[in-house]
Specification:
By secondary structure, this protein is of the alpha+beta class. It folds into 2 domains: 40 residues; 198 residues, no CATH class. It is 27% helix and 21% strand. It contains 7 helices and 12 strands. Strands 1-2-3 form a 3-stranded antiparallel sheet, with helices on one face. Strands 9-10-11 form a 3-stranded antiparallel sheet. A hairpin with a 2-residue loop joins strand 2 and strand 3. The longest helix is centred in the first third of the chain and has 23 residues. The radius of gyration is 29 Å and the shape is globular. The termini are far apart.
Length: 251
């Protein structure tokens, strides 16, 4: 059989390429295709900033801690500026009747008490202020609903994420402050809320509410909430006129 093969090869007219060369070319082609296939299917790598700490300042010089979690960098404190980042003052509304369904930008301190609540819990802003897109320091923004979703997914889902985000080391949350062992330094605080209906305050030290910058329509936007008695974080729809806390996220 060996002689037959040799005979057939030597007896045929000469080809421009030998079988050995053709075999090598085919092998190189298969390797090239395989390499390209690996290039296309390679996973996209995202930076992991988890545990990286820093600080930023707002237009008034208020300094905030920052914390990296996954591919994001967040403020580790609630915003407390009383100015937009273009220098314009945000009207402070103390009157319940004026806050009630007020369709203009506004902020307040919980129970109108800046001495007890400003430094710890930050300010409460309505969504009319949020949608100016001028509330966070330059280079930062109020998180989209999708930004919150990325954070929650990184922490294991909505049933666990609140327990990993809440402040674990202080007494600002009322008991029971149900947390999980893994603490990421986000230090979520229960700043409570101010209702668009009658301007009523509620839930400080028991619940924390944070705006997203994502709106559903001209009256409803999306927000997130955490609670003292469980480890969940919930997303919900909210009237523009409600007053909630704000965290900023790095662009």
């Amino acid at each position: 059989m060996v002689f037959a093969v040799k005979y057939l090869i030597s007896d045929k007219p000469k080809m421009p390429y030998s079988i050995e060369i053709i075999s090598k070319l085919l092998l190189i082609g298969f390797l090239t295709i395989g390499f390209i296939g690996c290039e296309v299917s390679a996973p996209v790598l995202y930076p992991d900033y988890t545990g990286q700490i820093g600080q930023i300042s707002d237009i008034q010089g208020n300094v905030y801690k920052t914390i990296g979690i996954g591919s994001q960098i967040w403020m580790a404190e609630n915003l407390r500026t009383t100015k937009l980042n273009n220098g314009s003052l945000i009207p402070q509304v103390e009157s319940d009747s004026i806050w009630d369904f007020n369709p203009h930008i506004a902020f307040c301190w919980y129970n109108n008490d800046s001495i007890c609540n400003a430094k710890i819990y930050g300010a409460l802003y309505n969504f009319y202020t949020v949608r100016t897109e001028l509330l966070c320091p330059i280079g930062w923004h109020i998180p989209r609903d999708s930004d919150w979703t990325i954070l929650v997914d990184f922490l294991g889902g909505s049933e666990k994420a609140g327990g990993k985000l809440k402040d674990y080391y202080t007494s600002y949350w009322s008991e029971p402050n149900v947390c999980l062992a893994t603490n990421y330094g986000f230090a979520a605080l229960p700043g409570g809320r101010r209702s668009s209906y009658l301007g009523r305050f509620g839930a400080i030290r028991e619940q924390g509410y944070w705006w997203t910058c994502t709106s559903k329509n001209d009256f409803i936007a999306y927000a997130r909430a955490m609670y003292n008695n469980n480890t969940s974080i919930s997303g919900f729809e909210s009237s523009y006129g409600n007053g909630y806390s704000v965290r900023c996220i790095k662009d």
